[in-house]
């Protein structure tokens, strides 16, 4: 058994984990960072989800280091890609011109930028990255985590890591059960949270659908994949609230639940500069091709791209048959989610109704080379909902819902460590619930949501903070996860510098002010200007 140690152990190399590691490293601390997939970056890279961001992202409302990540992605395109002169001069370059975000891009570019951000610390020896490793056990002494055992994904042996602080940045809160940290899953009850959208009784296994995304383009030829073994099942699958079969162009509108029909037009030849990527104005999902497009061929010199590349993270790939957390058959469900996505691809190529009256688009070509998955899909599933700590502060629907808060705006906490903005956006769930989509006010991230009630040296750094099933729907997106990780990493470094604990920082006004000063010094915004949510 190999043993290693550092000031901090960050388990999970998604956006929260990378941001946490960077915050610790900037503070002069040594870090071990682990990740079970081949790419760092989580939902932005291995899960292949273009950034979901708020309407003001180009001006304010994200941390300086997240802005550096976004700037780095644009700079990478300008330095290495054959952009047209018009695209190169576009200050707010959107390489994919997708409607979901002002910065839709290929996953590998984000991987390259993240690696560059971490490279100086690897070179100095203060950062050690373990890939591909995942946690399999933890040792504790009372309220303290003393060690974490990590196993190589492909059977390459185990490592025991020790650190003064352990940050759980895994996609599902993997360390919480291993370390005996109190946590919750699924729906809390209305009796517990008072939330208008909560059920009367708790439903711990009722969680948002997971999705396995994939990229594709549309070129000449027949690129039809092999018929998936479970295709007949998914071809006839129809959730009770869907309004049609899952494999169709019809589904509920998330905001109104009205059954609507999406369009699908590969390579529409639209002007990338005219795409309005502002979800406050338009959710952008009318034409599924341009919704999450990650490469708009007209941004590149003629002939560089045969086709646009679009990213399929559409309603029809949401897997509803069971949760993948705290169940004995999680592996079966994850495998079935991949089968669903392959079935969607096969349906698109062979049976999808075309608006010219035909069926199927055999020219659709899966781009596993873009997403890194050996089977043509993303290498990792997109998991929207994690285990969540029982925290000192639990963020509830009534803290940020525009319908509840009205013109008062979201609750202003005494201990903010960042800001975020997104609608409460819950996808259909494993318990048979339809979308829950609630307008929100721009909100703050309270420090109390990052501190477990009991454990003193384990901090959440991803989607495992003190939100509820409902408010996780607003806190789970890219810039908020990054801010959570950055705040957690800065908190661990601050506690090491001052020989104190996270609980003490929150309870002591002077310590809290000093910690918040460190955050603002490093470019973390703690309050919103006067803006209205949506």
TrEMBL record:
Keywords: Oxidoreductase
Keyword Oxidoreductase part of the UniProt annotation: yes
Pfam family, one: FAD_oxidored
Key word Oxidoreductase present: yes
MF terms (GO), sorted A to Z: oxidoreductase activity
InterPro entries (UniProt xref): NadB (IPR005288)
Enzyme Commission number(s): 1.-.-.-
PANTHER family (UniProt xref): L-ASPARTATE OXIDASE, SLL0471 PROTEIN
Protein name: FAD-dependent oxidoreductase
Lineage per the UniProt record: Bacteria, Bacillati, Actinomycetota, Actinomycetes, Streptosporangiales
């Amino acid at each position: 058994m190999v043993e290693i140690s550092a000031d901090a152990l960050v388990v999970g190399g998604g956006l929260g984990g990378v941001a946490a590691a960077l915050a610790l490293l900037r503070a002069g601390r040594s870090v071990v960072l682990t990740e079970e997939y081949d790419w760092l970056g989580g939902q932005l890279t291995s899960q292949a989800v273009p950034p979901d961001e708020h309407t003001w992202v180009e001006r304010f409302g994200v941390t300086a280091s997240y802005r550096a990540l976004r700037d780095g992605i644009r700079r990478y395109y300008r330095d290495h890609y054959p952009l047209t002169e018009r695209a190169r001069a576009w200050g707010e370059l959107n390489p994919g011109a997708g409607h979901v975000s002002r910065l839709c891009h290929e996953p590998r570019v984000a991987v390259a930028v993240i690696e560059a951000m971490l490279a100086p610390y690897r070179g100095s020896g203060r950062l050690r990255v373990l890939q591909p490793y995942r946690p399999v056990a933890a040792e504790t002494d009372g309220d303290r985590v003393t060690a974490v055992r990590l196993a190589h994904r492909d059977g390459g042996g185990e490592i025991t890591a020790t650190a003064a602080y352990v940050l759980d940045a895994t996609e599902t809160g993997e360390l919480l059960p291993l370390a005996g940290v109190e946590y919750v899953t699924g729906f809390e009850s209305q009796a517990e949270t008072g939330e208008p959208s909560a059920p009367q009784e708790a439903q711990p296994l009722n969680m948002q659908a997971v999705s396995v995304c994939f990229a594709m383009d549309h070129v000449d030829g027949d690129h039809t994949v092999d018929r998936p073994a479970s295709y007949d099942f998914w071809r006839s699958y129809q959730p009770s609230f869907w309004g049609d079969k899952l494999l169709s162009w019809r589904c509920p509108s998330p905001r109104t639940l009205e059954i609507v029909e999406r369009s699908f037009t590969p390579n529409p030849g639209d002007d990338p500069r005219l795409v309005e990527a502002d979800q406050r104005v338009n959710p952008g999902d009318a034409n599924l091709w341009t919704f999450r497009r990650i490469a708009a061929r007209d941004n590149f010199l003629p002939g560089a791209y045969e086709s646009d590349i679009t990213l399929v993270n559409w309603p029809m790939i949401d897997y509803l048959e069971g949760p993948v957390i705290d169940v004995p058959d999680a592996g079966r469900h994850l495998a079935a989610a991949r089968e669903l996505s392959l079935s969607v691809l096969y349906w698109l190529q062979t049976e999808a109704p075309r608006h010219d009256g035909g069926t199927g688009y055999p020219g659709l070509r899966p781009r596993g080379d873009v997403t890194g998955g050996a089977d043509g899909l993303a290498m990792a599933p997109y998991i929207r909902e994690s285990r969540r700590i029982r925290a000192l502060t639990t963020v509830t629907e009534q803290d940020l819902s525009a319908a509840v808060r009205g013109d008062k705006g979201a609750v202003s906490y005494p201990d903010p460590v960042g800001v975020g903005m997104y609608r409460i956006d819950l996808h259909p769930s494993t318990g048979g619930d339809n979308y829950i989509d609630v307008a929100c006010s721009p909100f703050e991230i309270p420090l109390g949501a990052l501190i477990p009630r009991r454990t003193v040296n384990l901090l959440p750094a991803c989607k495992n903070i003190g939100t509820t099933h409902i408010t996780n729907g607003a806190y789970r997106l890219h810039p908020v996860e990054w801010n959570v990780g950055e705040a957690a990493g800065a908190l661990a470094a601050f506690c090491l510098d001052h020989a104190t604990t996270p609980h003490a920082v929150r309870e002591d006004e002077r310590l809290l002010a000093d910690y918040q000063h460190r955050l603002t010094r490093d470019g973390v915004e703690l309050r919103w200007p006067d803006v209205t949510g949506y």
